[in-house]
Structure prediction request, 96 residues.
Amino acid sequence: MTEKIGLAVSYQNQIYDYEQDSGPNNRSAMLDRMEHLGGWKSVQVVAGNPGGGGYKYGIVEHTHEKAIFVPNHYCRSATTSATSTAITFSPGGAQF
Prediction:
């Protein structure tokens, strides 16, 4: 952004598609998923001391429609999806 402040935006996407599609608790039903990870990080130099911070947000979406047996009940893979958040701060010595 300027000589003293920098900003980087990122996005990652991974897709897992296993081939075992038959039988109870098959690999495809348990492990097929799409993962998204987006975020940003910045660095600011004040009086020669770099510092930085960042934010990441992740989503894991299980994509198989078959039911997965969990002891005492069945669940659809969509119920096993998750999100995550991370905030970082580096007061000095940060590298951009």
Q: What stands out?
A: The chain is about 5% helix and 60% strand. The mean pLDDT is 76.
